[in-house]
Amino acid sequence: MPEGFAGTPEPPYYAVIFTSTQTEDRQGYDAMAETMVELAHAQPGCLGSESARTPDGIGITVSYFTDEESIRAWKAHANHIGAQRLGRERWYTHYEVRVARVERAYSGPQGR
User: Fold this and answer.
1) pLDDT 10s digits, 34-89
2) What is the pTM of this model?
3) Cα 34 to Cα 14: distance, rounded to the nearest angstrom
4) Under a CB-based contact definition with an 8 Å cutoff, are residues 63 and 46 in contact?
5) Which domains does the chain have, with CATH numbers?
6) Engineering a disulfide at 6: which of 19, 24, 48, 81 sits with its beta carbon 3.0 to 4.6 angstroms away?
7) Calpha distance 28→90 (Å, rounded)
């Protein structure tokens, strides 16, 4: 798997898509984001994640999970709750969270 891509199994599995725009106050954000990625990846049911940010500040992180129970457990994790609160108070001007069941997946250029 190329660097930066999550290694996911054959579907079905779930994707949590977090799209955000940030405030100008980024103090502590990068360290918190790194901590949250490491913590999420250690959670049962987490398959990995992929992130990107445009030059104008729109970020998208897609986290992959085996099932909805694992997603709920991650959302309720005490450290993640604290990060969510800081995100709302300091780091995000807006965000959207979408949860989807992945039914098909393939890769390229040769496909899978």
Assistant:
1) 999 999 999 999 999 999 999 988 999 999 999 999 999 999 999 999 999 999 99
2) 0.92
3) 22
4) yes
5) 20-102 (3.30.70.100)
6) 48
7) 10
